Amino acid sequence: MCERNICLTVAYDGTAYHGFQRQANALSIQQVLEDRLGSLFGHTLKIAGAARTDTGVHAHGQVVTFKTTGSIPVSRIPFAAQGVLPTDIVIRKAAVVPAEFHARISAKSKIYYYRIYNNHLADPLLIRYAWHIRRKLDIERMSQSLKHIIGKHDFSAFRATGGATVNPVREMLHAECRQDGDVIECLFHGTGFLYHMVRNLVGTLVNIGIHKLDADAMFHIRESRDRHRAGVTAPAHGLYLKEVYYESGLL
Amino acid sequence: MCERNICLTVAYDGTAYHGFQRQANALSIQQVLEDRLGSLFGHTLKIAGAARTDTGVHAHGQVVTFKTTGSIPVSRIPFAAQGVLPTDIVIRKAAVVPAEFHARISAKSKIYYYRIYNNHLADPLLIRYAWHIRRKLDIERMSQSLKHIIGKHDFSAFRATGGATVNPVREMLHAECRQDGDVIECLFHGTGFLYHMVRNLVGTLVNIGIHKLDADAMFHIRESRDRHRAGVTAPAHGLYLKEVYYESGLL
């Protein structure tokens, strides 16, 4: 049987998993997908993901690709997968793509958003789904600071310390903060992200929002390339991988 | 020390609890509140709740009252309670109320809403927070049907079979369905609710939404007083107790 290259859009609640990437001694999204979909397709699968989301990070539109000789029709995959996957991982779309298409390598840009719950008291329904910030955030000031991260920049100041020595230049296409009642969502659309970059940007945004820093601090911190000047790494459970874009747009 | 009557507004994620009301062999919200707040106030507490939410039902604004001789200032209670309560139960407000005030008996009306996720595929982030309905719901038709439940009526058709033989007449002040993308929320404001009444109304609404019934079926089912003509009992995890109103309004 001829081999097909399959591309899936995957949503998950990251609470129960040790991130996307397969690990030796902890359950990952990748392992569950490879094991469960492997049983569906009838052979061992090697699945590539567009983004390596961390433990506790959620996804609406993670994208994965894999090659298969299995015969299941592509339109049937989302429903068939519901029968083998746990309820916190859902295949939202499936498509056959050209053999050279790769979820990570072919990706042109990604959108993440980060959710903050801003009230002096917690919301028990958002414990696993938003960062609880008690002090009132100045969303105007936070929004103003975002102009300093738009464009192509060295984002070393927002990279995890001890991260791999990859090129720290990334291009941010769009960034904004939206407020709906006590919920603030900060959205980041970039061509690529360094390890912990969104969470470190959000930690810095919160320092700006509580008036510990002014809006232009975002510029000076970025320019300094010094991780120690940026804010704390915001917790993983407020982060969502929203969408991954390819040459043809959204899949 | 003089005895105070304390009124709390409580939010909780009902996922981990066997409902509000204390039970012999299962953990309830009431038990956790009585045990944990009892340790805070330094004596055994007997807590009354405005509504007996079922296993898995959530609350933004459950109201409870209890008498205490403890000396903790009322303004300190929400913060102090965070130190003793699990993260899925949060005291949002606290007030001293007149001695005769009782969370359930003094309540004038309550608002519940029910959340439906309407898409042919599940959303893993709403598994515990919305009822997943795959078939496309006709929200116009659902909304039209709601006029038949507004006002004072015998709601026997929507009462749990085998429920207590209380007077089945209740007054619905307002009801509406709102849509935001794939999420539909049906809101019910009534002076009182029979056991499973909201969930049985929602089961019937869904039958109307999928065109199994027409909008006027809500009238005929209500008039029949026959539980077997109404829809299934919608699952508990889509139901939220939003607010409880008293003579003075919201607390």
What would you note in describing this structure?
The structure is a homodimer of 251-residue chains. Chain A folds into two domains: 4-106, Alpha-Beta Plaits, CATH 3.30.70; 109-245, 2-Layer Sandwich (Alpha-Beta Plaits), CATH 3.30.70.660. The first copy, chain A, has five helices and eleven strands, in the order βαββαβββαβββααββ. The longest helix of chain A is centred in the first third of the chain and has 13 residues, at 29-41. In chain A, strands 1, 2, 3, 4, 5, 6, 7, 8, 9, 10 and 11 form an eleven-stranded mixed β-sheet that branches. In chain A, a hairpin with a 2-residue loop joins strand 8 and strand 9 (183-190). With 251 residues, the first copy, chain A, is an alpha+beta fold. In chain A, helix 3 packs across helix 4 (197-209). At the A-B interface, helix 2 and strand 4 of A face helix 2 and strand 4 of B. Chains A, B: It is an enzyme of class 5 (isomerase). Chains A, B: Homodimer. Chains A, B: Keywords: Isomerase, tRNA processing.
